[in-house]
Specification:
Layout (H helix, E strand, L loop, with lengths): L7 H20 L13 H23 L1 H5 L34 E4 L2 H4 L13 E4 L34 E4 L16 E7 L30 E2 L2 E2 L14 E4 L10 E6 H10 L1 H19 L34 E3 L5 H7 L21 H10 L3 E5 L20 E3 L2 E3 L1 E5 L27 H4 L7 E2 L11 E5 L13
Parallel strand pairs: 3-7, 11-14
Antiparallel strand pairs: 1-2, 2-4, 4-8, 5-6, 9-10, 10-13, 11-12, 13-15
Amino acid sequence: MASQPVQRGALMLALLVMAGLLAVLFTAGLLTSRVTGTDTASRDRTTREALVQAKAALLAYAVTYAENHDPSKDLPGFLPCPDTSADTRDGAADSPCRGRNVNALGRLPWYTLDIPALRDASGECLWYAVAGRYKASALKTNDFIAATDQTTQHGLFNWDTPGQLDVFGPDGTSRLTADNGYDRAVAIVFAPGGALGSQNRARVNGTSDCGGNYTASNYLDTRAGIDNALIAATAPDAGANSSFVQGPAVPEFNDQLIVITARELWSAIWRSRFFQARAADLTRKVAECVARYPSDPADERLPWATPITADIVNSDSQQEADNSFLGRVPFKTPVSNGVTGNATLRLLGTSIVGGRCATWTAQTNIWYANFKDQLFYALSDAFRPAGGAGGRSCGANDCITVNGVPLAAGVMLAGPPFAGQSRRPGTAEVQDVANYLEEPNRTQASIVGNGAFASFGPAPFNDSIVCGIDASLTVPVTAACP
């Protein structure tokens, strides 16, 4: 089915925002092949400019995906399928493309991206590979309880969702993308160059703009045993990342390429006003749910936290533990209920599913389903569920603080990982708070019931969305929790 042009004004604005970033990346020579020799300088410049423009358009598409392409799902970060056949108009993304989580390769979908049919110096239109987890046709869960079958990243789609595309240097062994999910590629754009050897680029019907055909081996080359025209045919849970090669032109190889890593994509998304607004809304609504825990307005005891060792996908498994002052936000509160007498087991979610969240919406469902592993909860000693019912207040050294303000509790959203932080799915790394929070929050997490947290700190720092619950069990509007 042909994709309709997106809202041009918003997309062009996003492209302008991306331009500065891409200029820096390009100046640094990020994974773009360089053809040596002064006689090829102009042609090489033409090809590089086309690659950079394609990368800008793809980043803009991902950043504005929820606004311009799939508002019903409300999540940014997804990339279009390639154009792989003449079934739709030239330059239109296929939908769907291959199986769920399976990588896809084809022509750059310039029509869907609402840009011209970009060509390299040889006059050929660009090609494009996309990681299966990041395809716009991928299943996007809105099941905030189980969040099943979204990706092999434990059913969640966020910045910890690994890329699936590896890029190697001309020797076929040296890595140009790091061997970790965050620095692995989620998309690659190829400039195929002129035809080599037996490559046949005869035109087929349906290629009115670009000409040629859809057989990848007629455009992309092999080097050091890696064939750029081949892409893994199975989902990544079967170990099927896809490998590509890049390097200076030689007689049997002239592909040039540029990549988008998961780190680049989510860094752009994190800085967007849309994402910051949605992330703050999620954090606030979760904090408001926690603040509504007491069934008796005169009882101000709050629940324990869920240990960070708990399962991060199935919400029903995210149950609090006795004397847990910092961890993930509890979805179920059986321990605290046993002390306070509260009857409702689920803390989060609407009353339809037994939760206490009056402001919870379908949008909240989607965002919580995909970012719940990034939410952390700190409880003050003065408001722990132990002890008698009644009002509570902050005394000396028995409450947490956020930016110096004493609070009953706080909910914070961890940002994308920095260098040195690793959150590989299915490993103990997702059970280490140091892989999520920065200083001072990282150190304060080990302080029981009266840690001093902050929404700002020395670089690198991105724990900036922090919603506090004050002593009256309300969530005040602050700069960190708008």
